[in-house]
Amino acid sequence: MLDTVAVENYRSLRRLILPLRGLNVVTGANGAGKSSLYRALRLLADSARNGAVSALAREGGLSSTMWAGPGKTGPVSLKLGFAGEDFGYAVDFGLPQETETAFNLDPEIKSEVVWAGATLRPSALLAQRSVRTVLLRDGDDTWHPAATLRPFDSMLSEVADPQAAPELLALRERVRSWRFYDHVRTDTDAPARQPQIGTRTMVLSHDGADLAAALQTIAEIGDAGALGEAVDNAFPGSRVQIRTEGRFEVTLRQPGMLRALTAAELSDGTLRYLLWAAALLTPRPAELTVLNEPESSLHPDLLPALAALIARSSERSQIVVVTHSAALVEALRRRQHDVNAIEFTKQEGQTTIVGQGLLDEPSWHWPARG
């Protein structure tokens, strides 16, 4: 589980050190920085797939994503990191050094480090990279060169020798398990409304196309009772049925109806709730699941049922919910007392955490560039 996420110089996140627990809810006004946090978490996950540099390029490069407010001094540097009880990771992006290239929006990785434990200190370092060279520490506290990387390749994705770097490999696989769900489509042409070829689906896809197969998988090898309870909480007396003739299709049988409604007939809110049920009741829970505005399209009466779903999921997976809905936050607090509610605000263009002073921040240290 992550204890801390740290971001520096990314959009309005000039300097953010975020404490995390099992169930975390991030709120704040429009423009306070909630979406920037969501994107920063995605960038960290992209590092494990060697996609952070290209993701930053798609955002317009460092010039478009860097903090643009006062107090900006020194070399261009965008930093991302996280730490838990067992491992920590940090990466520092800077401007490219090559002058003759058409890919001038691609930033370079200036440094990366992995350490053991919650706090970065020299004795805890396991792997470090300065521009191109990756060094690994062995059991005798001796550093050995492990690889020479291109400046746009992450050591988290490129160095994965199970003998020389088992910790790096373990960390990479854990980060790759993180899941992100953001405004899954429920419009008329949404993939979730269409019959699909079905196969066992342990994890709902990001577009929800395999909703029917994911729900059927939960019913057969997951927690069918939890699925039935989640549907009944939201739509009393109703139950989900999956048609499997030819292609898989979601249907919802409701009291008083002579036939089950197909996915094409469901309201946006009803379909979205079923998508959240499939995502959160997965038989293969992620180490971290991040939900961006899950209340979208849901009637307020569905928020207690959604809160119950999220609270149940937080027993198996660390959850971060980014939301505008005070009602959802309150419903989560009623379901689970240990909710880490974090409110963002913006002062002089900079995102800060309401009520957090310097002494309240988790311990965090950025690695120096080599």
Report on the structure:
Among the domains are: 2-18 and 44-178 and 345-360, no CATH class; 181-267, no CATH class. The mean pLDDT is 92. It has helices at 34-47, 52-58, 62-65, 155-158, 166-176, 211-221, 224-234, 268-280, 303-313, 326-335, and strands spanning 2-10, 13-19, 23-28, 78-84, 87-94, 108-116, 125-130, 133-137, 143-148, 179-182, 239-243, 249-253, 261-262, 288-292, 318-322, 339-347, 350-353. It is globular and about 70 Å long. It is built from ten helices and 17 strands. The chain is 26% helix and 28% strand. The relative contact order is 0.17. This is ATP-binding protein.
Reconstruct the topology from this structure.
Blueprint lengths: L1 E9 L2 E7 L3 E6 L5 H14 L4 H7 L3 H4 L12 E7 L2 E8 L13 E9 L8 E6 L2 E5 L5 E6 L6 H4 L7 H11 L2 E4 L28 H11 L2 H11 L4 E5 L5 E5 L7 E2 L5 H13 L7 E5 L10 H11 L4 E5 L3 H10 L3 E9 L2 E4 L17
Parallel strand pairs: 3-15, 3-16, 10-14, 14-15
Antiparallel strand pairs: 1-2, 1-4, 4-5, 5-6, 6-7, 7-8, 8-9, 11-12, 12-13, 16-17
Helix pairs in contact: 1-2, 6-8, 7-8, 7-9, 8-9, 9-10
Brief digest:
The chain has 370 residues and is an alpha+beta fold.
Mean pLDDT over the full residue set: 92
Q: Helical region count?
A: 10
State the shape. Answer: globular
Note the gap between the termini: 29 Å
What does the main sheet amount to?
8 strands, antiparallel
Rounded Rg: 22 Å
Spans of at least 5 consecutive residues whose pLDDT stays below 50 are none
Order of helices and strands: EEEHHHEEEEEEHHEHHEEEHEHEHEE
The percentage helix is 25-40%
- The helix-and-strand class reads alpha+beta
User: How many strand segments?
Assistant: 17
Spatial order of the strands in the main sheet? 2-1-4-5-6-7-8-9
Strand content: 25-35%
Keywords: ATP-binding, DNA damage, Nucleotide-binding, SOS response
Domain ATPase AAA-type core: 23-330
Pfam family, one: AAA_21
Protein name: ATP-binding protein
